[in-house]
Amino acid sequence: MSTTVSLPRPAERVALFSLLLVFLCGAVAGALVISMLRNTGQHGAPPVSAGLSSMSVTEWKNNLNLSDDQTRQLTSILDDFSHYYDNLLADGSTRVLQILDPEQKKRFAQMMAQHRGK
């Protein structure tokens, strides 16, 4: 007895692709925000809604009077947070590359290089 597997209907494919695209855009946006915040250092006022990574470790240490041990732990937490988004972006990129043809892969690489250069 064999079972047949049917492909999703076009509407379901569009919905799944849209969901994947939204997820990847969010991952890319999050990674870009973290990258920009990491590069800004202590210049200017931190964005109000930027969250954990909107301040440098030095600002956290000074404003909260953190001990050296707390500072090391905070640095580890922020590094883990950054690595999580880097891994998420890499995983999303890998999955996108799997569905692209060779010409699309070249354009995707160019798009990613442009975004990293900003």
List keywords for this structure.
118 residues; mainly alpha
Task: Annotate the secondary structure layout.
Layout (H helix, E strand, L loop, with lengths): L9 H31 L16 H8 L3 H32 L2 H16 L1
Plain-language structure description:
- With 118 residues, this protein is mainly α.
- Helix content is 74%, strand content 0%.
- The protein contains 4 helices and no strands.
- Helix 1 runs antiparallel to helix 3.
- It is elongated.
- About 8% of the residues have low confidence.
Question: Would you summarize the structure shown here?
Answer:
With 118 residues, this protein is an all-alpha fold.
Q: What series of H and E elements makes up the topology? A: HHHH
Return Rg in Å. 20 Å
End-to-end Cα distance, whole Å, is 57 Å
What would the average pLDDT be, to the nearest integer?
75
Helix content: over 70%
How many H/I helices? 4
Largest sheet: none
Query: Strand-residue fraction?
Result: under 5%
Instruction: Give the class from helix and strand content and strand pairing.
Output: mainly alpha
Contiguous low-pLDDT stretches (5 residues minimum) are 42-50
Rough shape?
A: elongated
Quaternary organization: single chain
- Total strand segments: 0
